[in-house]
Write a structure and sequence with these properties.
The complex is a heterodimer. Chain A is an alpha/beta fold. Chain A contains seven helices and four strands; from the N terminus they run βααβαβαβααα. Chain A has helices at 35-51, 70-78, 92-107, 130-138, 150-157, 162-165, 170-185; strands at residues 26-27, 84-88, 113-120, 142-147. In chain B, strand 4 and strand 5 form a beta hairpin. Chain B starts with a strand and ends in a 5-residue tail after the last helix. The chains are: A alpha/beta, B alpha+beta. Strand 1 (26-27) of chain A pairs antiparallel with strand 6 of chain B.
Chain lengths: 191, 147
């Protein structure tokens, strides 16, 4: 069972298995054409993270996947999430990328989807808000608006979630509200 | 995949597998009628693909270990990333110096798994101290290769 960290959160990551902080993730195999089995290797490990780790009683199992749709597709091959959160920023290029994920999730039949607008703040005059545009074009609601706050990085660097270290910060309140909304969206009786 | 002994018209039986260490895999099959042997040498990519799918050539000799795929396929993983106590009686099994020395010859990325396999076997047999002789017995009993 993974040890509980700050706030009682248990974390498993490939990072915890690496032999050096700057070690890139590599898989054993021939030096060439690694792309052939990279997906197999990653999906196999993701499956083991679900099946082989004793998670204990959890409120939520949150799977953080990198931008892009390929990892989401692999995740959907293994499990069907109750809720999907699409994290984006006001940047237009982020909207462009996340819109693909939204379509993928919808085509997979995932209904409970929320947008998390991260690093929000005042926009340049005339600039489009990519997160709002994403919500408008997809019909997916924005569940949280996390304002940019440099103090969050300080909290993170000392291993303290901002909701504990800076509970009254607007970003922390937004995180707490997001957590409540996420729990409300889970089907009764889960996890 | 199976091989057929054409002379005897019989399916050949899996006899042995070897992992030379260069990424290839050799599997030996034998005809139980005439004794003819053939060996299949898989190239590294085929070996990796099959391994990634979790297939054990010739069948599995020991139960699947937790995170087995990850620990055997991760390049450069921490040596103690998968260390664990015996699931049967944690902390009860000791290792003598020679046994530990032999264990150090096991590749680091599977050492933790191998150590636990031996510890579980010793615990199941009521053996408090793992020696090289115990390792030999366990290896024969479990059909382990190269451990």
């Amino acid at each position: 069972m993974p040890p509980a960290g700050a706030g009682g959160v248990r974390v498993v990551s490939m990072e915890l298995l690496q032999d050096a902080p700057d070690a890139p993730l590599r898989w054993r195999g021939p030096a060439h054409d690694g792309f052939v089995w990279q997906g197999l290797a990653e999906t196999g490990t993701l499956r083991e993270f679900f099946s082989d780790i004793v998670w204990g009683d959890l409120d939520v199992l949150l799977v953080d996947v990198p931008p892009g749709t390929d990892r989401i597709a692999r995740l959907l091959d293994l499990v069907r999430p109750h809720v999907a959160l699409l994290v984006t920023t006001p940047a237009e290029i982020a909207r462009f990328v996340v819109a693909k994920s939204a379509r993928l999730l919808r085509e997979a039949g995932i209904d409970a989807i929320g947008i998390v607008a991260n690093m929000t703040g005042p926009l340049e005059p005339g600039a489009a808000d990519g997160a709002r545009a994403l919500a408008d074009e997809t019909g997916i609601a924005i569940w949280a608006d996390i304002p940019f706050d440099a103090r969050l990085a300080v909290c993170t660097d000392r291993g303290e979630p901002c909701v504990l270290g800076l509970p009254d910060a607007p970003a922390s309140r937004a995180f707490s509200a997001l957590a409540e909304r996420l729990l409300d969206a889970l089907p009764a009786g889960t996890p | 995949m199976k091989f057929l002994c054409v002379s005897c018209d019989r399916v050949m039986a899996f006899a042995e597998r070897q992992i030379p260490g260069d990424g290839t895999l050799a599997a030996v099959f034998v005809c139980d009628s005439c004794g003819r042997e053939i060996a299949m040498l898989a190239n590294p990519m085929e070996t990796q693909l099959v391994s990634s799918l979790g297939v054990k050539i010739g069948g599995r000799t020991v139960p699947e270990q937790p995170l087995e795929h990850t620990r055997t396929n991760l390049e450069g993983g921490r040596a103690d990333a998968f260390e664990g106590e015996s699931r049967l009686t944690p902390g009860a099994v000791q290792w003598d110096a020679d046994a530990m020395h032999r264990l150090q010859r096991v590749p680091a990325f599977v050492r933790g798994m191998v150590k636990r396999i031996y510890a579980d076997w010793a615990a199941e047999h009521g053996i408090p101290m793992i020696t090289t002789a115990v390792m030999d017995r366990a290896r024969a009993d479990l059909g382990l290769e190269g451990m």
